């Protein structure tokens, strides 16, 4: 498990690489609690987003199990009208949740930056 300092530094690097970065959190899958976060918008409730996204990841894993899929969940992408949200599994029980403004970033930039730095969070 990375230290809080490592999490913050990793999010600083990701934010620097993504124009339009809004927020990111490292989330415990079982509890939905944030283990670390960075937000450039105080109105973006990362605690609530992390908890709800934890439930979404759990449901996806449940679906994969019910379909008897012999693979692992790598990431989940949600595109909104004005935002990109990416969930990247970074450990056995943790994931990175990231939100970016679509006016400044695109999927390739978001994925590239997250993949470049996600290893520091596992």
What does this structure look like?
The protein has 122 residues and is α+β, with helices and mostly antiparallel strands. The protein has a single domain, classed as Beta-Lactamase. It has helices at residues 4-17, 46-66, 107-117; strands spanning 21-28, 34-39, 75-79, 83-89, 94-101. A hairpin with a 5-residue loop joins β1 (21-28) and β2 (34-39). α1 (4-17) packs antiparallel against α3. The protein is globular. The protein starts with a helix and ends in a 5-residue tail after the last helix. The mean pLDDT is 96.
Short description:
The chain has 3 helices and 5 strands; from the N terminus they run αββαβββα.
* Count of discrete alpha- or pi-helical segments spanning 4 or more residues: 3
* Poorly predicted ranges: none
The helix-strand sequence is HEEHEEEH
> Strand order, biggest sheet?
2-1-5-4-3
CATH fold category name: Beta-Lactamase
Radius of gyration: 14 Å
CATH architecture classification name = 2-Layer Sandwich
CATH superfamily: Dynein light chain 2a, cytoplasmic
Sheet with most strands: 5 strands, antiparallel
- Just give the CATH class: Alpha Beta
pLDDT averaged over residues: 96
């Amino acid at each position: 498990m990375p230290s809080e300092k490592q999490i913050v530094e990793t999010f600083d690097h990701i934010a620097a690489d993504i124009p339009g970065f809004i927020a990111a959190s490292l989330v415990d899958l079982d509890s939905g609690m944030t283990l670390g976060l960075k937000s450039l918008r105080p109105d973006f409730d990362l605690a609530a987003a992390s908890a709800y996204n934890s439930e979404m990841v759990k449901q996806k894993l449940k679906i994969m199990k019910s379909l008897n899929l012999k693979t692992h969940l790598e990431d989940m992408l949600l595109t909104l009208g004005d935002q990109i949200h990416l969930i990247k599994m970074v450990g056995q029980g943790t994931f990175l949740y990231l939100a970016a403004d679509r006016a400044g970033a695109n999927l390739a930039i978001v994925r590239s930056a997250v993949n470049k730095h996600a290893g520091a969070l596992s």
